[in-house]
């Protein structure tokens, strides 16, 4: 707790002297001091959460950065700096500053795993630093035109040219970079219509983008081509290319493993089993939500940013 004890003690003394003549005054003084302490802690924590970037070294020049938004991957070596995603717009400068604490090299390439603003918000800032942005064809199209997510009642304006991918791919792309083979693999109709999963073959590390949320229910963007069965297919493909030593950077959540990805896959499949029969019976989305079909999963998976009811709505729409 970063509260100045000298200032608090002085303030406490002044308040207590002012109100010491009555029991009510003493109680009021203590409440007031408590409020000051709590307010100071809340403000301090807010400042740290807004500006702080957690940097985690993984292996072989690979790092995971966590700030506001999706997880950022950084790959550093003799060829230069290769970055995956960049969080929300307001943390773009902090992400770049965090990278500069690891290496003085400029960012050569920035890969966007998909179009959502919590993964592409820093594009303009990093693009202005000289990085070449790379993404799937559909990602560039959506970033250029702008779009809307009705489920969150949020509009995303089109980005300026400096923030757009200059290189795009359709199915796959390979970088021979920093002594590793880095494969960008597209999986159709998974989290969105433009997901790219990045495999570092020598390092045995995978950045999944939002195909994988580690530990809680994921968002599936059915408005832009996402589907839960496509998510399952993509996860199956990642599992097939992984082993017990694979380290997995999820789109959100802590650094993960093949076992945790398998557990996530089982959850997705169970959600389909619980909700799809109800939809096929002709029940409306509201009727399905009312039945609370995900209760067997909620205790473990329902403590993220999506409530069980919203998750049920997402699965219903993504089937």
Automatic annotation (TrEMBL):
It comes from Marinibactrum halimedae. GO terms for biological process: antibiotic catabolic process. Gene3D superfamilies: Ribonuclease Z/Hydroxyacylglutathione hydrolase-like. This is Cyclase. Belongs to the metallo-beta-lactamase superfamily. Class-B beta-lactamase family. The lineage of its organism: Bacteria, Pseudomonadati, Pseudomonadota, Gammaproteobacteria, Cellvibrionales. Pfam families: Lactamase_B. Residues 69-252 form the Metallo-beta-lactamase domain.
